[in-house]
Specification:
Elements: E1 2-7, H1 12-22, E2 28-32, H2 44-59, E3 63-68, H3 71-76, H4 78-89, E4 94-96, H5 99-106, E5 112-117, H6 119-124, H7 126-134, E6 139-144, H8 148-153, H9 160-173, E7 178-181, H10 190-197, E8 202-204, H11 210-220, H12 222-225, E9 234-238, H13 245-253, E10 259-261
Parallel strand pairs: 1-2, 1-3, 2-9, 3-4, 5-6, 5-7, 7-8, 9-10
Helix pairs in contact: 1-11, 5-7, 9-10
């Protein structure tokens, strides 16, 4: 059985690349819902339904475990999938997100953290709620950035400079100590964000956190790990391809990828 990695678009390739490097022996399927990206401005019910469809599609391809690399889906759909969908349909399989592992990594930091994310993730207050449960000393400043995912997916990052500055300006005015990139697309902007934010502000990026957390999870759950096939196979699937698709994918993943076009 395989590990599935799901994202609303191509941003999850950043997470996938990091996971492949940390845990290379397993077989993986990456699924990007590029026909319907971005998810960030959609309703909670729509996000749940899109995510449920993707999870079902990956399970039917023999995935034992699925990582929802999309922060929006993790914020708006994951809990319902874990509590309602899995017990009825796939009780022996697992779906994990990226928000809780990220919070576990930073919860002991009594600092002011700026969260940069999509509109839906920010409106859900998922990071703030979960962090407050674990450490009330942490101060959270939330900033939605609805235009960044479309800019990345459409390969128009050259136009992102002023937009990125406008999103970061309120955070810098709040004098945050750290900026958490709450979307898997955003690591591609990490250097640009560092340049604007300055050397004193730490950038928290999920591709540096999730692989280690997955490794720990598999050690703690041998009943899942023992089911996983170990042939180092990689399958990449998407629901649509636009004119900039291959170039964007190569930028995010670091090398050219062969994609299979799917419909579910």
């Amino acid at each position: 059985m395989k590990i599935g990695i799901f994202d609303s678009g191509l941003g999850g390739l950043v997470i996938a690349k990091a996971i492949f490097k940390e845990l290379p022996k397993y077989d993986y399927i990456y699924l990007g819902d590029t026909a319907r990206v971005p998810y960030g401005n959609r309703s909670q019910q729509t996000i749940f339904e899109f995510t449920r469809q993707a999870v079902d599609f990956l399970f039917k391809q023999n995935c034992a475990l699925i990582i929802i690399a999309c922060n929006t889906s993790s914020a708006m759909a994951l809990r319902r999938i874990q509590r309602e969908y899995l017990p009825k349909k796939y009780p022996n399989r697992r779906v994990l997100g990226v928000i809780v592992p990220t919070i576990e990594e930073i919860r002991n930091t009594p600092r002011k953290i700026g969260v940069l994310a999509t509109t839906s993730t920010i409106k859900s207050h998922s990071y703030k709620k979960e962090l407050m449960k674990l450490n009330r000393q942490i101060k959270i400043f939330e900033q939605e950035a609805p235009l960044l995912v479309p800019l990345i997916e459409n390969n128009t990052l050259k136009k992102s400079g002023d937009i990125l500055k406008s999103y970061l300006k309120p955070m810098l005015a709040e004098k945050v100590d750290d900026i958490l990139l709450g979307c898997t697309h955003y690591p591609i902007l990490k250097n640009a964000i560092k340049k604007i934010a300055g050397k004193k502000i730490k950038i928290i990026s999920q591709e540096e956190i999730i692989p280690g957390k997955l490794k720990t999870y598999l050690k703690r759950h041998p009943e899942i790990e023992s089911k996983l096939s170990k042939k180092r196979e990689r399958l990449f699937e998407v629901t649509d391809k636009n004119t900039n698709f291959d170039e964007v994918a190569k930028t995010l993943f670091g090398k050219k990828i062969k994609f299979k076009l799917v419909n579910y």
